[in-house]
Amino acid sequence: MITIPLRILLVEDNEADVMITRRCIKKLVQAPVIEVVEDLSSARHQLVNFVPDLVISDYNLPTCTGLDVLELVKKKDPALPLIFLTGTVHDEELAADTILAGASGYILKKHMNNLEEKLKPLLKKVVFNMVSRDEVRERLRKNKIAINQIYDYLDSLKADNQEQKQNLGKIKETIRIFKEEQDGDDTKA
Q: Per the database entry, which stretches of residues form a coiled coil (predicted)?
């Protein structure tokens, strides 16, 4: 069982599929928080206000397609995983296209009786990636703290001559550039 609490946005219009999916997730995840929406507007609202760790979406919705949901998710957070749970993906080409478009996986609704078995490896992958990103963010945070401390120390040094002042200026500029690069990398993590 996955012990990390997951926040899951379920984009699904079929109540029976919602119930089956909720039950399956609760068997796999110790403390899931699941929000259910039926349309793109509600999904947009939940992406901003609920901020899920994972989106599970039907492919064929009354007001949009799964690719519309995927596009919205990738626009809000390119690293946010999305799994399609669908009865629509009949041919392998469309299934491959969803993965190439950025979906983390897909499960056919004809496998709803085996949903737990199909969903488990995908959820484990999501959790693994979450933990990895958290570790990277923590390392970046510690690096930024160290850089800030070095920068503060350099500010406190009193340069006696022009050469020392120039060297301190060069060091500060190098650190400033490094900080900007770190900030850019942090937005990608």
A: 154-181
